[in-house]
Every structure is written in structure tokens, then in C-alpha cells.
Amino acid sequence: MSTPKAFIFDLDGTLVDALPDIQANANRALESLGYELRLSLADTQPHVGGGAHKLASNVLGLPMEHEETMALYHAFADIYEQNPAEFGKPFPGVMHVLDTLKAKGIPISCVTAKPAKARIKVLDQMGLTPYLTLALSPEDGFAKKPAPDMLFECCKAMGVEPSETVMVGDTRFDVEAGFNAGCQTVAFAEHGYQDVPAEYADRVVSLPDFTDLLKLLDA
Predict the structure, then answer these.
(1) CA 49 to CA 193: how far, in whole Å?
(2) Do residues 137 and 115 touch, judged by C-beta distance below 8 A?
(3) Which of the 8 DSSP states describes residue 27?
(4) Helix, strand, coil: what percent of the chain each, to 5?
(5) Whole-angstrom Cα distance, residue 61 to residue 120?
(6) Does residue 59 register a pLDDT over 80?
(7) SS3 call for 47
(8) Distances (CA, A) of 77 to 51, 141, 152
(9) 139 pLDDT exceeds 70?
(10) Cβ pair 164, 194 in contact under 8 A
(11) With 70 as the cut, is the pLDDT of residue 198 above it?
(12) Cα 143 to Cα 18, 57, 149, 192, 216, distances in angstroms
């Protein structure tokens, strides 16, 4: 296997532990709409990774197009945009990996389901923006993961082919997006919010320690 020329990362659950912020803002949204339901961290975790609309649907147990789902989605999106990075922080090893890639001149991009304004605030407040060639959300005009569209756009911006790129994520959406794009390697961050999908377990590079990602540079 040749040494990868670029890396694309998911954001929540991969670079940043956003679960405390998602929980806090989901509960604020529920309260604002008069619901008595409140989510613990454990309640929130299974709903992370598919975007705010899917989170609202799952939390309420209602269809995506239901009026209450849409109301919670919009309330959460509005509140989260104001408070996207109160409690979260980069996972252990993330800054070391980014520093190493930057020092080697390897371009880095980020693709996320997070709303664009919240993404920008999180990346800025966590000090991650200077590392990135490009960061994209579906709101920027792209299909959501597992569609490969955002990955293709990042590769174009970085001047590489997907077959020269590593996709790193923590959900099924990330894994499938990486394979759909034809990435050289798909890596799975075990510190994230979901277990690696069983059918992909022998096809991904698992990262029990995030810094294990750097071993790919020695390939």
C-alpha cells in the first residue's frame, strides 16, 4: 500500500467529543418546546452522527416529516448554533495527529453532518481551522454521508484522488462514505459514538488509539 497523500476526517465523534454539547442543546430545545423529556449522555449517544434532523426524529420516535419532529429540529439547530462548543474538546491524540500531518505537508479536510454555522464555530473555538484545506457540511450544497459528494469536493480542493486519501470517522455513515468515494483506506475511531459495523469490521483500519493513524504514513 502506498503512503496516503491526504486525510479527510469526520468531526463529531472523530476529531471532537461533541456529545456533551449535543446533549445540552437537545435538552434546551426540548425544554423550549415544553417537553418534559430530558436526555442523558447515554440517551444522546446513539442519535449522534446522522445530523440534527435525524436526531430530532429519533428522540421523539416520530417520522422525519412530522410537524413535531420539524419543530424540534429547527429549535435544536437554532440553539445549537449559539452554543456549539461549551463543553466539547478534541479527543486525546487528535492534536498530535494533526500537528504531525501538517508538519509533513499532508493536506487535511473535514466533512460533517453538523450545520455549517455550528461547524465553523466549533472548528474555530477548538483551534482546528488552521489545519484544514476545506471543511464541508450538507448545507454547503452537498448530499449527506454516506454519499461521497463532500469527499470528492475535498479531494478536489486538496489536489488528490480519493484513491490516495484516507477517510477517518466513527459511524456507519463515515465508513460507507469512504468506501463509496473509493478512498485508499477507511479508518474507524474507536473513541467515537458507534461500534464499527460488523460487515465492515475486516475492511476498515480500527483505531483503538487515535495516534495509530500515523502508522499509515509508514506503509
Answers:
(1) 8
(2) yes
(3) H
(4) 50, 15, 40
(5) 30
(6) yes
(7) helix
(8) 10, 17, 26
(9) yes
(10) no
(11) yes
(12) 22, 19, 6, 23, 29
In whole angstroms, give the CA distance from residue 169 to residue 10: 5
Query: How many other CB atoms are found less than 10 A from the CB of residue 39?
Result: 17
Decide if 57 contacts 64 (C-beta within 8 A): yes
Pairing of strands 16-17, 89-90: antiparallel
CA distance 96 to 118: 24
Mapping DSSP to helix (H, G, I), strand (E, B) and coil, where does residue 125 land? helix
Categorize the per-residue pLDDT at 51 as very low, low, confident or very high, splitting at 50, 70 and 90. Answer: confident
Residue 137 is predicted with a pLDDT of 96
- DSSP 8-state code for residue 85: S
Reference 99, options 90, 88, 89; nearest CA is: 90
DSSP-assigned letter for residue 185:
E
Choose among 159, 178, 158, 160: nearest CA to 168: 178
Which pLDDT band holds residue 219 (cuts at 50, 70, 90)? Answer: low
- What is the phi/psi pair of residue 172, to 5°? -55, -40
Distance between CA 126 and CA 42 in Å, rounded? 24
Helices marked H in the chain — which ranges? 19-32, 41-44, 52-60, 67-82, 94-103, 116-125, 149-158, 172-181
How does DSSP classify residue 12?
B
| Residues forming beta bridges with residue 17, ordered by sequence position | 89
DSSP classification of residue 128? -
Q: How many residues does the chain have?
A: 219
